[in-house]
Design brief:
12% strand, alpha/beta, 10 helices, 195 residues, 54% helix, homodimer, Rossmann fold, 5-stranded parallel β-sheet
Chain lengths: 195, 195
């Protein structure tokens, strides 16, 4: 079946978000990333700042925070409520229109649809460091720490909510090393796959 | 740097070998698969039949067979000697000419070269079963067992000799789901990446 939704999972610093945004522009379809935070906030009743910090990443406290965090009377933690709101919005967006969705376990959330192209973008350390030091104006040591922390929180969130392993090839239709292939070629390959 | 060597790792039944062979034909470059068994046999002094059964797969006994198998006076097991012979041949082939190499941990063995495109091909269960039942003239149940056994032995061999995880996206330049993308498109994408 032809693919009309593109999900992009990505390592921090791999340029995956940039590639996804370019693909959406070139295909003339919607692009969903931080711009859905407002909707998640509205749906969950929590603040956009809280969502920004927690909706895609595991708590800084780590995995145990999920397993043992405070539950309400229904057995749901605040994290679960955010996740549920985010999940519903992603399901609605996919139903509504062709789009690119960045992160947020969208590959797993949309697993029952067969019109979804799931992409994972990763890269080599030197290129990722170069990108992060440039984008965030930090030194190499800080860039390495940001990368390790962010990817660890993404992985923890993904593995907890999906029971799959983040970055395992078989979860995705297409995995690309953006350092070796270049951003332009990554975009071209993704577009080739939704033809 | 331009890629002149293509390594193809693949799930059993994903058509990875077929895709690799087609790419080699279309690019007019050498194709190495079972046809290097004779060379490995010569180099290691073991029989081609033994190599066929053991050079890419872990022993049927599983991982412990590696760790605790009999060692000669240098501390090497027979499996290690086969692996060493295979490794040297792959290094020589990559040095000699542009080529496609199927399996045999070639991605890891060639990791110090920057002219290698490492590809992992995987697929969805129904399509893999269909391919195996057709190719090997077996029933579905037998196909599922062949798949589980072969992939387990490939994974065990890979993880043991590379200290990496077989099928983890970041080991490869490109990972493709052949069931969703189709064999033709997989071939086209691979060729696009060595341009």
């Amino acid at each position: 079946m032809a693919k009309r939704i593109i999900t992009i999972s990505r390592e921090f610093g791999s340029g995956g978000r940039f590639i996804g945004e370019e693909v959406a522009k070139k295909l003339g379809i919607a692009y969903y990333d931080k711009n859905i935070i407002g909707q998640i906030a509205e749906k969950s009743g929590l603040s956009p700042e809280y969502i920004q910090e927690n909706a895609e990443l595991s708590p800084k406290k780590g995995l145990f925070a999920y397993a043992f965090s405070g539950r309400d009377i229904t057995g749901k933690s605040v994290e679960d409520m955010v996740y549920e709101a985010q999940r519903n919005i992603i399901l609605e967006l996919a139903e509504k229109e062709p789009c690119v969705i960045i992160g947020r376990n969208a590959d797993y959330i949309l697993k029952d649809r067969d019109d979804v192209l799931n992409v994972f973008i990763h890269g080599d350390m030197p290129e990722k460091i170069k990108r992060i030091t440039g984008l965030y104006n930090v030194k190499e040591k800080e860039a390495v720490k940001m990368m390790a922390d962010t990817d660890k929180r993404r992985r923890t969130n993904y593995n907890f909510y999906t029971d799959q392993n983040w970055g395992k090839a078989s979860n995705y239709t297409l995995c690309l090393n953006s350092s070796q292939l270049g951003y332009d070629r990554c975009e071209m390959i993704i577009m080739e796959c939704v033809k």
